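Board notes (copied after class):
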Amino acid sequence: MPEVPEMEIYKNYLNQWVKEKSISHVNIFRAKSINLESTEFTRLVIGKQIKSISRQGKYLIFHLDDGHALLTHMMLDGRVFLLTNNSDSPQKNVVSQALYLQNEILISSAEDIRKRIKELPGKPSVVFGLSDGSILFFCKLTLGYLHYLDQEQLRTKLQELGRDPLDPNFSAQDFSQLLERKRGMIKPWLMNPKNIAGVGNAYSNEALFSAGVIPTRLISTLSHADKVKLFDSLVSIIRDSIRLGGDMEEPFAVWDDFTGGYNTYFKVYDRAGQPCFVCQEAIQRAEVGGRNAFFCTHCQH
């Protein structure tokens, strides 16, 4: 599941390639992925300019020039893919491909599009044709969604989230205070979006390892120093992952060779049975709070 780093990378790419473009075509292949009837969604979205794209937790927010927003959550399998139509594109053949599909987007089936674009990261759920000729695909939104919201609806939705780890106003002291008088194990707490927004299985495992805290550790046993170290580890790992490309195998576009660059840097996540990079003991796996936890019993306590 994409977490803060992956969604931050999407946000950065989208602001580079999609910002200030208008939505000229819409094709909805999975009506359950949107929150309105398909014809109404299409009517409201077509012609709108995307003023900017922001992120909060695992949400991406497309801010439109009518004051509304498109809020998307990838959930487990969702992906975003851009077929660019730009003279500066690293692959010139993309231009003609995008122009051709722009004319066909309203009548093509999901299967036809997948045949034409082998690089698509899955079956398209919603597709936008943009004013510069490029095409934005929201793929595999089986559990995920793309909702058209007014500002009050958007505020209500975002109020459900806890603090974002990259919020510049969120400090180790704030994090420590959030954990005061909390019960239960630390890993499920970290992964609850009502506590900390956007942290999932991968980066909770990595942050706990870096901080030397075992995933099953009871919050009540954490010292203030433990909490500060955990916060610093979490923020540092998230920033490193963003800098190195995050953890997704599927690229944002056919020319994208940056996405997924953090995959080889995980120290415990998905490394059960392999030696710990610090002490050489085998990395363990156990179910904690309904999710797989990866940890080193020698380095974490």
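Comment from the instructor: Residues 4-158 form a domain with the N-terminal domain of MutM-like DNA repair proteins fold (CATH 3.20.190.10). The longest strand covers residues 50-56.
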